[in-house]
Protein 1
Amino acid sequence: MVMATIRLDNLNPEDRQEIRKKTSKSILWVAMGTIAMLFSGFLSAYIVRQEEGQWMEFALPTEFFYSTVILLVSSVTMWWATNSAKHNRYGGIKWGLLATLVLGIAFSVTQYIAWGTLYDQTIVFAGSQSNAAGSYLYVITAIHLVHLFGGILSLIYTFAQSLRRKYHSENKLGLELCAIYWHFLDVLWVILFLFLYNVR
């Protein structure tokens, strides 16, 4: 460990940055792969339970459609931020991240409203009136929202760093990591939404 530290210290800043970039992105990809496997397990369990019968069919709340559009737009604003960093446009980085953060919060609020709509239709998570269809819907959407909260925390930190003009064409690793994770959450939600919409 000491020898590895010494060797890294002897590298020039560009090489150290490249090693840090490759290592950080590899760790992030492994984490996202783990999350994807988690949801694959839930969707598989969803299908198995559905085939067992006694499965209640109901329409998804329209709020889920709105939240999908909101999250897709947030990927555009995140792209705006990362593209601005490539051209040293500090205003674009700042406003792109802020817009993404606001849209991420809006998505969370819309999801909460959707749960309220489900509850009003007596589609509950647990209890005598519950059904596996509703329970799985709550669990799957809630777990995605938990991971999205992690993305929101990352956005808050990245936005704060952007106010200090930390990100630019020569240093955008933190911004890129945040963007990769956010786009992943976006794609993941679209897959979940299409699955829940079609597999009723």
Protein 2
Amino acid sequence: MYLGLDIGTSSVKCLLIDEDQQPIASHSVALEVQRPRPGFSEQDPQSWWQATLDAVDALKADHAGALGAVRGIGLSGQMHGATLLDAADRPLRPAILWNDGRSEAQCAELERACPRSRAIAGNIAMPGFTAPKLLWVREHEPEVFARTAKVLLPKDYVRLRLAGEYASDMSDAAGTLWLDVGARRWSPDLLAACALNEDHMPALHEGVAATGTLRRELGERWGMAHAPVVAGGAGDNAATACGLGTLAPGSAFLSLGTSGVLFVANERFAPNTEGAVHAFCHAVPGRWHQMGVMLSATDCLNWLAGVLGAPVPELVAGLPRATAAESGVLFLPYLSGERTPHNDAGARGVLLGLGHASDRGTLVRAVLEGVAFGFRDCLRVLRDAGTEVDTCLVAGGGARSREWLQIIASCTGVRLQVPASGDFGAAFGAARLGALAATGADPESVCTVPPIAATIEPEAARAGVYAAGYERYRTAYPLSRKALP
């Protein structure tokens, strides 16, 4: 048996699988995000730990025998979160999360302090990354910065509580902006730019490696016969890639969740910082990956549902196949700023071209298409980096809408493959990494592609409409700035 733990933004999820990778049981515990000021996003690290205890306790209540046979535990989690600990491992402040935009000014400061930062990290300094957050803390909370002994990512704080080890994996560490991504090691230059050194960092491991064993008292609490190993694990997107079998160079998946991700596995480090492409280490040795990242995907539809006072399923049910692009209504999905391709924390959403005939269906379709145009933007800059994508697996809650998938396929020209019913997300990928750490098996033999239930082909009849709409979308970007003249 193997256990996957996914420390997400909205919940902690645990998933128990057997030796044949068949799910036995899962449980989720909700989390809350605090927003003390506009643009701020924080969580209490203790809430991650309590949710982890509650989730695994719930598994024991109904599946004690299976839980007791666990041999490996894998971890996945939201990336970039700055968890600052004192010398006694106590959190010094709430963790600053991936979607926090307060450190925009510190990004420029970091790149001035380390002019080679983009070449080393393979990424532009963005407010979502961990390093600029530490510069913000140094400037605005100097007493907290002075007491900081360790900086951990969310899943790695949970690891500390599980196994007593300061450890991280390459994929999650790549999102800090302190990693030399090509060399897969901490960069002294990037750390020095933030007045930090390797003593502040956890030890680095590959995602398939064992980083320690479960504490004895936790093994007793959960009735485990032997202390399971705790795998290096992965950041949420790399873990999802392991769950979907996206390991081979050139393989790809599209995640239509709260945020939107276009993920492509690579055999080498291949950055494109000009297009704000993310170039990170994969969770398995000798592999890297590129990502185009949108900060708001299904979040855009959730926003519209709140405004219209109708649930999301009701909004998307029975949409006519006529396109909003034909009516001239355009939506820019930058509700929380944007990463790829703009790296613009100040960008905001726009609805453009409304008229008397614009109804609820028009607005819904415009939002669906605006997100599709965002994915086309991601595809464009990935191609600029030399990466071609013609087929993607799909994941995330938005993938339940076949019409949305058809819009994305027709807008991007990419064939989309829908996995058969099952849970192949980050928690499943984390459980697979737990199995790899426990058994030493070949990642390619464990992280296989799931059965495909349906393939969504691009529709040529829509391509021309979407091509024209996309050009309008790109031209309209300057309207997204929150401070208009």
Protein 3
Amino acid sequence: MRRTDLVFFLSGLAALVYQTVWGRLLARLCGSDAAGVATVLAVFMGGLALGSALGAGLARRTGRPVRLFVVLEVVLAVWAGLSPELLSALPPVASTLGRAGTASLVLLGPTVIMGVTFPLMGRLTIAEEHQLAGETSAFYSANTLGAALGAVLGPFVLMPWLGLTGALRLAAVVEL
């Protein structure tokens, strides 16, 4: 196993802990009905997609992809660690537009950052064109396996053991 695989595994793990905890925290503000959950999920996935689109060009242009990846991961960890305070300062919302605005305010920044890191993973691991399929599969697999573990650990282990804020902060430490 390469060191980058471990980094991408841990990044995926932290990301899914964030997603599950943010989903629970935002349910308090946006509701836990189908519309509230769909809004949070749409903003989360939309942020990832937007970040990936932005990150593709950035990954090609940057002269220091490792440094950029590290800076983005640190910003993401700090944002995640501070997000419970941000969320507790926001009032509950009932309207669909208000829900989307609240979810966007909290989630777009970190999810765009997560999306940007994906093309950077490719830049960090793919040296030549003929490596594209194999290396993409390797880093994506490591990240996805970490995400799967995070999706289980978050709600079934970390949240009951540490609470929502504690689970988020532990995931931020893992991210770092």
Protein 4
Amino acid sequence: MDLWTWIIAAVIGVVIWRVSIYFLRMLSTPPDEVDPEDISETLQHYRCSVCGAEVTMTMANNIEVSNPRH
């Protein structure tokens, strides 16, 4: 094998390593804390049309709440 093959292999290896480290750091960072003032009481009922599971939500963020999904 010639020198260019080794250089290309090393560059590809470094890129894969850097991308892997980036994703591991991203996954290991905990999400931001929820401000207790942003949480309000609610009473919303959901029923899955596929499996029939039912959920009653009693607390939610003040942001727009979407239906829970599988």
